[in-house]
Amino acid sequence: MPVLPPPADKPQLSSPPKDTPTFSDSKVSVVYVLGGPGSGKGTQCANLVRDYGFVHLSAGDLLRAEQDRPDSQFGSMIKEHIRGGTIVPMEVTVQLLENAITAQLDTDGKGLFLIDGFPRKMDQALKFEQSVCPSKFTLFFDCPEEVMQERLLNRGKTSGRTDDNAESIKKRFKTFTETSMPVVDYFEKEGKVEKVNAARSQEEIYEEVKERMKRRGFEMKK
Length: 222
Fold this sequence. Notes:
It is a single chain. The chain is an alpha/beta fold. It has helices at 41-52, 59-68, 75-84, 90-107, 122-131, 145-159, 166-189, 202-215, and strands at residues 29-35, 55-58, 112-116, 137-142, 193-197.
């Protein structure tokens, strides 16, 4: 792995210590969307954006965009982590998400956010909750590994994503089970998880998602 240059005097991503979160959960609603790779998170997020007015923030998409940004001091590091199926350092991901929320609030001010594929580790969860915004709940798409693998291999034929191959997929499953499931378990103990059976058709899954959203006080746009 290449050695990163020392941070500049004014790093592109800075996260000074904070006593309180940047955003209040009375003004900003954050819903985490978790599930193994290929569980269908992106598809269901698109439904929720269309019907509920959420803004969809994909941690993975933000990281991929950052790795391709020509003057990014973190690009090569992010690339190595994505290729290896490992997790990018917490500070980078959390700051990218905070930047994206800030930019969106400046644009429309609605304050409804789905954060897809995050938090993937306990330290990410605690850091975001304490420094950015406490979440409302976690929408967890529960899906057997063999179903997810089949979906990903099919997607890999057309997606062009470097991590949609058998070797990377296996690493991503292992990473999710070992690091992300404890996050789901943690929030479940707090009564902040809605678990959805994601081994069914997209339509069946979304019907259950709508029920779970209603249970948490979110209504569809009229």
